[in-house]
Amino acid sequence: MTEAPLLLRADDSGVVTLTLNRPQARNGLSLGLLQALRDALAQIDADPAARVVIIAGAGPAFCAGHDLKELRAKNYDPAYVDALFALCADVMQAIIHLSKPVIARVHGVATAAGAQLVASADLAFAAEDARFATPGVNIGLFCSTPMVALSRNVGKKQAMEMLLSGDLIDAPTALRFGLINAVVPAAELEAQALAFARKIASKSPLTLAIGKKAFYAQAELPLAEAYAYTREVMAQNLKAQDAREGIGAFLDKRVPVWTGT
User: Fold this and answer.
1) Helix (H, G, I), strand (E, B) or coil at 191
2) Region 51-63 average pLDDT
């Protein structure tokens, strides 16, 4: 029998849903799954028809982090470990650098590198039953790489609470921490995430790409440099046909027609 693909892709009017497809392993991020995710993100970045990405998980969980069984089966081989963590870092950065917005659609658990995946996404919607944790401290392997994304998305005290305790937090707590954008009933999760993705997909793709890149770039700059950088970004953005079309449509009280230029 042919093995099921590690990652599923579904396209719907500019919205691409990528589903982690290792339900029997709670979508643990094996080397193969990370490679599939990296390749899919590269394809989406080059696809003008793709406007927004949703990352979801098959089965009972969103993502339980790295595949510990695979780690042990590889006998913690240093070459494998180095390749695994390097690839994981590449995937998380690819999400940030992707020219399309990325939404995490979370149900069940999102732990360790799974929580890292949520934190790396631009937006995150979670079902009421979702739970989040960076539990590495409980097994003697501190969640150092998940810490990078986590500490850039929640407050320092909240990040340290998760990292030092390893405890699961519920969806309302994740919302309060700033890790996710909304908590919705499980039955409505897919529909609400898709509706929001379609709303974003209706915007100018060029403007979305400019804005996402600028958001992450300015966040790493001192205040004065951030204003200098974004001032130049806005000036360049104003030269785009979509910006002039959008302003004209607003003033003329009509629906804009985006060209992506």
Assistant:
1) helix
2) 98
- CA-based Rg of the chain, rounded to a whole angstrom? 19
pLDDT category at 3 given cuts 50, 70, 90 is confident
Clarify whether residues 216 and 246 are in a common domain: yes
Provide the residue range defining the domain that includes 233. Answer: 205-252
Q: Both 216 and 101 in a single domain? A: no
Q: What value does the mean pLDDT take over residues 6-20?
A: 97
Could you tell me which residues come within 8 angstroms of residue 28 by beta carbon, excluding any fewer than 6 positions away? 22, 63, 64, 65, 66, 67, 68, 69, 70
Any idea of the CA torsion for 52, 180, 30, 163, to the nearest 10 degrees?
Answer: 150
pLDDT, residue 2, reads: 66
Count of domains forming the chain: 2
CB atoms within 10 A of CB 241: 13
Q: What is the dihedral of CA 185, 157, 133, 15, to 10 degrees?
A: 50
Among positive and negative, which fits the CA dihedral 191, 194, 198, 200? positive
Report how far residue 13's alpha carbon sits from residue 26's, in angstroms, rounded to the nearest whole number. 29
DSSP, collapsed to helix, strand or coil, labels residue 56 as strand
**How far apart are the C-alpha atoms of 57 and 60, rounded to whole Å?**
8
Output the pLDDT for position 134: 98
